Amino acid sequence: MKTIKLLALLPALLLAHAGNAQDKTPLTLLTQYPEAGKKLTINYNAEGTSLNDKDSLKARVYYIDNKNFPVDEIALKQSGKLWQGEVTVNDSAKAFVIKVLRDTVIDNNNGKGYVYVIYKDQKPIKGAYNAKAYVYQIGKQLDVTPDMAEATADYQKETELQAKGKSPKMPNYAFMARSSDPAKRALVNKAIDSLENSGTEGSMFLAITLLGAEYKSKAADSLTAIGKLKYPNGNIARYALENEFFTTTNLAKRDSIYQLYSKDSHAIKSVTQYMTVFLTLGYLKAENLEKYRQYKKEIVNTSDLDGSFNSVAYDWAVAGKHLPEAEELSKETIDSITARINHPVSKNFLTADELKARNKESLDSYTDTYAFILYKEGKDYAGALKLEAPVWERSTLDADITEHYALLLMANGDYTKATAIIEATIKDGKATTGLNDALKKCYLHKNGSDQGFDTYMAQINAVANQKAKEALAKEMIDIPAPAFTLKDLDGNPVSLASLKGKTVIVDFWATWCGPCKASMPGMQIAVNKYKNDPNVKFLFIDAWENGDDYLPKVKKFIGDNKYTFDVLVDEKDQSGQQAKVIGQFKVEGIPTKFIIDGNGNIRFKHIGYDGSNDAVVSAVSNMIDMAKM
């Protein structure tokens, strides 16, 4: 087997000493070689930082352990201009990030972050630089500016330190495979050629993985087929089975694959558990409660599924079916989240207090679902109202929660309060069909007929529209939109330049994106609203899809849902990802909509799903109207 080598940035000895090199930065460690499980002392001088002259500073250390990502608080004591604190480094840490803060003001070292690797006997531990590179990949989650160059350099450091004459580790190549640097891509392709011809299953498996990282799914599938024939009981065959399980949407097929996979003595336990999660949720959503309960018993810890269970229970309540089962499921989620509130454990880059606060928000959502189920069952209206009232008070006029609260108020005879809270919510720009219907029932209860209701409703909506436009006026921008030409689903080119003079709505989306799909029914209503306006054009740009064969999947999704959208398909960028135009628009998350005026300038950038069809239509309509002015 040929040995594949990467260019070394620095000799290994120098790398070991360079890992936590400390220039003259405000934060310093009293040890150059921090170790897991040992005490670490930090010094901090706020002079010249965003925290200068602020009191009561504190620090947090975020551990990169590739598992739970816990957080520790560091109490800081001040002595003159210097702040000092101490913490015992988490046992599982491979690298860590320190943030110093006062309330919402954070010193993040001018975006570079205070990032350090873990040592053992003054040498970086295995995976330390991979963990550090991960920080610069996820970036903003830790208030660090994403830096692909720094991440690549760290991956290469890991390879240099850990290779010791062996073949380089796959993750480093996989990261380089998506680099825009032609030299790095060429190095990866050379590695793939060598790996394919090495004559070992491990090398062939690495080649398959790298082809996938380069978005060359057809070549990866072809090599996988060869590997399965050559090594029918090996890792390639097992990986193919895993991939087949997670890519198919057929529940029965998933079940049969699981039965086959779980009987393999070499099956990966974590993958088996993940499969049971998919089957549990799949059967629950398919309303096969017997199979759902069967697979649920196999899951070690279902707490991470509380949100999914709550969603199913809520959907059943809306549909008015399986109400006893929905009540039982909802009560389980409440008990589970309550236990985690009472015994919070830091994870997912959240402190114990932050996680507790987030779980309390989830508890409100689950309690709202439970109270709504009781309403739909027609039992214990008084008890349900008692549960819902404090949730509504904390909800800041959430449309769904307001609707449920209003329905319970009405069920308990308080139409006056129900009317008041519905009016306030609609005027706040959060109208829904359910709220409108509930308000009409209140109007009928008070007036005995619906005479005058349309005028009354129009007045409320006028207040909402005016308030929404005043808020949008503060968000207006005026920057040139990137020029682009993309093909539609029939292969016809469409350019932004050809639409000059029109107000153009560009909506970036993907078939795997839940919020994108949730917003589309509302966007269809908006498209219908403006279909006779020759000066308004909607473009739905599909981007960030996985693999090479996404076009048929995009066509099927649009066809199955009967959307009359003008869909364009983004092209691949230099890294091989379907992200050329979405990258030019600097999109960070989807769905993201851009409203472009007749002069080709972006006037609005709108991120996310607005929560209901009515809210989507209202937001898009107001932005279009204002962009036309």
UniProtKB/TrEMBL annotation:
SUPFAM superfamilies to which the protein is assigned, alphabetical: Thioredoxin-like
Signal is among the record's keywords: yes
Gene Ontology molecular-function annotations: antioxidant activity; oxidoreductase activity
CDD domains linked to this entry: TlpA_like_family (cd02966)
Leader peptide range in chain numbering: 1-21
Keyword Transcription belongs to the record: no
Organism: Mucilaginibacter mallensis
Name the UniProt record assigns to this protein: Peroxiredoxin
Keywords, comma-separated and alphabetical: Redox-active center, Signal
Domain Thioredoxin: 475-629
